[in-house]
Amino acid sequence: MLSVPTLFATQSQRMNLHHLMIFLAIAETGSITAASERLHISQPALSRELKSFEERLQVCLFERHARGMHLTEPGLLLADYARRLFTLEAEASAAMEAVASARRGRFAIGASNTVGTYVLPPILARFRRQRPEVQISLFVGNTEQVAEGVADMRFLLGFIEGPLHTPDLSTQTFREDGILPVVAADHELAERKRIRITDLAEQPLLLREAGSGTRELIDRLILAHDLGQAPVMELGNTEALKQAAIHGGGIAWLPRISMVDELGRGALVPLGLASLHIQRELAIVRRTSAYLPPAAQALIAALTGKTPAD
Questions:
Q1: 10 and 158, same structural domain?
Q2: In 3D, which of 208, 232, 205 has the Cα closest to residue 145?
Q3: In the 8-state DSSP scheme, what is residue 119?
Q4: What distance in Å separates the CA atoms of residue 235 and residue 173, rounded to the nearest whole number?
Q5: Which pTM was predicted?
Q6: pLDDT in tens, 78-134
């Protein structure tokens, strides 16, 4: 364990970047005159700063000769540290400039199933090509899991498709999507021209798990239309629901964005009951008081089509 004297140097031992800059300029140019020209500081002022620096460190850094300044053994050691320090300082400045311009960054995001599977991947791929030094890790779960992850700071941003019940979070809508009740092409309801709500009463329903934003919206719909007695099978993600519906497992409410191909080729057929269709908002979730680095602001802009300043 480091002792207190090691952690906190005395006032006489402290050095600053200004002293180190002066020291290194003299070391590299070989004279106070040349260092004065490089730094645009008068020679007397440079000499005073160097003397003060050596007194603070309690070592002699240069041997003074008529032909110039020559580093002593302590001076050679310090020059090596100074070069490394200023290289690191330049790298740090460049890194901060890259962060400020949204060209560099690292953060984690969470997304509910539909957004994480069908919306974000192409946007993240394009974002990655444009900003290869920005590293983003994506967790895909349900709305409840994503909201909790944002609240406890595991995710900087969340992307959800259902109602938000977690306090101290704010939302921003970035897209709308419809949820449609669908069945397989050979399902008995697929061929009916007219369907009544009562036709669904005995049909098996394919639903997401509890905690899913989609499930919450559909549960409200089922309760409103008194379909709560229908047999239910729960599946943990949208793709599993879709495959179960395609193979005749029952009626599934699926996001339109998740079944563009299946609707196009007739593998799934939407039920013609407008009252059972759901229109919902896809939203960005963040902690209300959280700082958003420029790279995260750029990602939001990519989703919303607005610049960070808008």
A1: no
A2: 208
A3: I
A4: 27
A5: 0.70
A6: 999 999 998 888 878 877 887 777 788 889 999 999 999 999 999 999 999 999 989
